[in-house]
Amino acid sequence: MSVNYRKISHCLERSVRHIFSSLFDDPTADEIFDVNTIPAGHTVLIEMDGTLKGLLRIRIPQKTISAIAKKMDPNAKGKKAKEREEDIAGEMGNLIAGTLTNQLQFIGHSIRLFPPEFGEDLIGLTTFYENVSMIFNTAYGYLGIDLFYREKED
Q1: Who's near 25: CB < 8 A, 6+ residues apart?
Q2: With the C-alpha atoms ordered 95, 97, 102, 106, is the resulting torsion angle positive or negative?
Q3: Rounded to 5 degrees, what angle do the CA atoms 9, 12, 13 make?
Q4: 5-38, pLDDT tens digit by residue?
Q5: Rounded CA gap, 19 and 92, in Å?
Q6: Is the pTM of this model over 0.85?
Q7: DSSP three-state, residue 132
Q8: Is the CB of residue 72 less than 8 Å from the CB of residue 90?
Q9: Cβ-count burial 118-152 (b if 16+ within 10 Å, e if not)
Q10: Do the Cβ atoms of 57 and 43 come closer than 8 Å?
Q11: Which ranges of the chain would DSSP assign to H, the alpha helix?
């Protein structure tokens, strides 16, 4: 386990809470420990490079993404709302990854983010990288976050 594991975990948790409290008016978003898996839905992958290299995976169940989509565009109905869900999932990934990158700079990391991709392909990172895995319960539903990372060695 890396020396900064606890600090990185804290940055990730704080980033998710910030996005939900600031942008979605949900101060109740909190990490939970009594749920091991979340239902299928959208999976967003954001690759990172820099002093911390790896991948952020955000899993958003269908129920959760539908509730967030309704919050972001209350006028969208039916097919139009459904079409926007992948865009909204990608934007959620960008928001969380950007906030995480900002938080990580305070513990000495400089990170470049790549555009979000969709799917489950983890590019083999699950074996050789550290992993922070969290599930959050929000007013909109569950959200799973996995950070696979390796810190740059001096």
Answers
A1: none
A2: positive
A3: 85
A4: 899 999 999 999 999 999 999 999 999 888 777 8
A5: 9
A6: yes
A7: strand
A8: no
A9: eeeeeeebeeebbebebbbbbebbbbbbbbbbebe
A10: yes
A11: 5-23, 62-72, 78-104, 125-128
